[in-house]
Design a protein that fits this description.
By secondary structure, the protein is α+β, with helices and mostly antiparallel strands. It has helices at residues 6-23, 26-42, 51-74, 114-120, 125-136, 141-148, 152-169, 177-193, 196-202, 227-238; strands at 87-90, 203-212, 224-225, 246-253, 256-263, 266-275, 281-287. The protein folds into two domains: 6-79 and 123-169, Butyryl-CoA Dehydrogenase, subunit A, domain 3 (Up-down Bundle); 177-298, Nuclear Transport Factor 2, Chain: A (Roll). Helix 6 crosses helix 7 (152-169). The radius of gyration is 20 Å and the shape is globular.
Length: 299
């Protein structure tokens, strides 16, 4: 390994995470990391006093350049759009090799859940960048200002607006990983059992299901609201489980307990739930678009 490569490798996980949390796409984040390396390799590093800040600045601005066109493409997206899930742990399929994935070394932080990333989509690009750099990774306002080419005062103001916006819209309750896993397991068991009553018992009355098929997989074209409607939709999906090639496993999705599934060895879906303070599922976020499930190919 060359001497110049070491600082880049040291911060690769951070760069991927920043780009992913700005774009909600693993492929785009990987491209940003690659482009950041190209710029780093061509730079006069003798003049770089802080490699981390320098690399984050490059990656942030490359991600922001992509964000505008990405949002324009989403205007014609079929059905609800959800971020591409990071499946960072799961019980591997029998005989499958251990995965090699950029998410393995990502510095996820606590703000990378699918539910929070959906909220980040409602921020302006600049506010999203400030929130990610300041709130998720704890970077000083001066460093963020330098990365974005803004004044410290502007960064602090954007950060305040973004923080209030996210707090008002993010899930009201943050369960522990143990509670999240327990509720997720009950939810999964109820779906697999095909019992409407058992499923209704784990769903909050006002539960909402958002499914992203991108026009390429079976999914609802609009969010489904109400426990009974959500239960019917889930049980229709769960009926696929009668196929012996259908495999469902507990997984870690974006750093939180979730579920992943395969059919005929191909990725079928990744899902996570938002848990209410009384231990019920108040939101189901299900990604079925095969373009967003490439990470499951590695299991």
């Amino acid at each position: 390994m060359s001497e110049g490569l070491a600082p880049f490798d040291q911060h690769r996980g951070l760069l991927f995470s920043v780009a992913y949390q700005l774009l909600g796409s693993v492929a785009d984040a990987e491209d940003v990391v690659q482009d950041t390396w190209l710029r780093w390799s061509a730079a006069d590093r003798g003049e770089v006093t802080d490699a981390r800040a320098y690399l984050v600045r490059i990656a942030t601005n490359l991600a922001l350049d992509r964000l505008g066109s990405a949002r324009a493409r989403r205007e014609s997206y079929v059905g609800p759009w959800l971020p591409e899930p990071l499946v960072t742990a799961a019980a591997p399929l029998a005989g499958a090799p251990a995965p090699r994935d950029p998410a393995d070394s990502a510095e996820l932080g606590e703000e990378v859940s699918l539910a929070v990333l959906v909220v980040l989509e409602t921020l302006s690009p600049a506010e999203r960048a400030v929130f990610v750099l300041r709130e998720v990774f704890g970077m000083p306002a001066a460093e963020v200002a330098q990365a974005l080419g803004r004044s410290e005062a502007a960064v602090r103001q954007m950060g305040h607006r973004a923080r209030e916006h996210v707090q008002a819209r993010r899930p009201r309750f943050e369960p522990s990983a143990a509670v999240q896993r327990e509720v997720t397991d009950r939810f999964l068991a109820a779906c697999a059992g095909g019992d409407v009553s058992a499923l209704l018992a784990v769903l909050a009355p006002s539960a909402v299901l958002v499914s992203d098929g991108g026009g390429k997989a079976r999914a609802a074209l609009r969010p489904i609201t109400g426990a009974e409607k959500v239960a019917r939709f889930l049980l229709a999906i769960a009926a696929t489980g009668a196929d012996p090639s259908f495999v469902v496993l507990p997984a870690e999705v974006n750093g939180r307990p979730g579920v992943a599934a395969w059919q005929d060895g191909r990725p079928f879906m990744a899902a996570t739930v938002v848990v209410s303070g009384d231990g019920l599922v108040e939101q189901v976020l299900m990604v079925r678009n095969p373009d967003k499930l490439a990470g499951l190919e590695r299991w």
